[in-house]
Request: fold
Amino acid sequence: MANSFIVSLLLSILYIASASSQSAAPVGSPAGNTTSAQEFIKVSCNVTTDPTICVDSLSPYASSIQESPRRLIFTAVNVSLANIQSTMTLVDNLKKIKGLTFIESGLLSSCAEMFVLGLRDLTTSRGQLDDMYKSKGPDFKQHFEEAKTSIGGAEYNFFFCNYEFDQRKEVVKLRALVIPTVVNVSHILSNTIDLVDKFANATG
Ligand SMILES: *[C@@H]1O[C@H](CO)[C@@H](O)[C@H](O)[C@H]1NC(C)=O
Ligand SMILES: *[C@@H]1O[C@H](CO)[C@@H](O)[C@H](O)[C@H]1NC(C)=O
Ligand SMILES: *[C@@H]1O[C@H](CO)[C@@H](O)[C@H](O)[C@H]1NC(C)=O
Ligand SMILES: *[C@@H]1O[C@H](CO)[C@@H](O)[C@H](O)[C@H]1NC(C)=O
Reply:
């Protein structure tokens, strides 16, 4: 049947996309087994919106994070960037499917544009965090607020992609392929804001 053919085609493209995003993981340093660092990540992630995703996404970098709030924050930003990039790869691959409807390719293109903006915002936030750690007093506070705003801007773009799919409930299959990843990135970004908010002032 044509329908099941399309589903299996979509699934194999999704599989290729996730396989390539795994092999591309360019963040931080190799996995370690530092028990106290893992504990530090667990306790820190406890303040976030989604502790489970927070721990899952950061614990591979425990040996590089150690117990440094600053390294925790930069790793969270780097992990967020890597997640945005793999979502962009996924959407690029889905756009290559033959026989997409006008609405389907429009949704994918719109989300792809949003993700470019999200990537830009998050990259900006990394510079603002760098500046923040070099400043004191009111300057520190200003860069702190700017960084949180930029990460929030990145998160907004992922909400918007989700929203656009919500307006098109008939796009069932594509939605099932795109939205879990988009929601995941939203949570990862939201966790990153929480970590910046709670730990930017901590020393170490
Ligand atoms: C984050 O990524 C940047 C650019 O690749 C790198 O210079 C930096 O060391 C990374 N930071 C952490 C904590 O992994
Ligand atoms: C890893 O950490 C666990 C404790 O969480 C410890 O039991 C285990 O021996 C460690 N493994 C290595 C290879 O260090
Ligand atoms: C997370 O917070 C809850 C409630 O404050 C607490 O009961 C729990 O022990 C904390 N978990 C960790 C790993 O810190
Ligand atoms: C969500 O992100 C985490 C951390 O990067 C990853 O392990 C998990 O597979 C992702 N889940 C989805 C549905 O994309």
In short: The CA atoms of residues 136 and 142 lie 10 Å apart. The chain has one domain: 30-199. The pocket of 2-acetamido-2-deoxy-beta-D-glucopyranose (ligand 1) is lined by residues 27-28, 71, 74-75, 78 (CB under 6 Å).
